[in-house]
């Protein structure tokens, strides 16, 4: 246990910060899960309402990530990594997959030297 007044105060401050950080991280994980589930729901049944739900959940998660980085709960690179994961999931869910046959047909054939 702490022996002097300043160390007791530091223990109280550390506990208060731990609880605040925990709430930020918990809310962040919840918003990210909502975004991933919205992406999978859109993949199963595409529609305009599902697409707006995906965009709304991604915007909410991005906002919470940015706030967590600003406050110091997350490191900046961790926040960027999480945003990248969300963006990739949303992009793969909303944009149709490019067919490999269409890509190869679009590229011109290079003639071999004679």
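Sequence proposed for the structure above (114 residues):
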């Amino acid at each position: 246990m702490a022996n002097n007044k300043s160390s007791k105060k530091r223990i109280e401050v550390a506990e208060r910060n731990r609880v605040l950080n925990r709430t930020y991280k918990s809310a962040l994980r919840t918003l990210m899960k909502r975004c991933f589930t919205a992406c999978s729901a859109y993949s199963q049944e595409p529609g305009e309402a599902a697409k707006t739900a995906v965009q709304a959940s991604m915007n909410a998660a991005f906002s919470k990530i940015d706030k967590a980085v600003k406050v110091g709960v997350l490191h900046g690179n961790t926040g960027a990594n999480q945003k990248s994961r969300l963006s990739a999931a949303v992009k793969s869910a909303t944009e149709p997959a490019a067919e490999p046959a269409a890509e190869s047909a679009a590229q011109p054939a290079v003639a071999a030297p004679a």
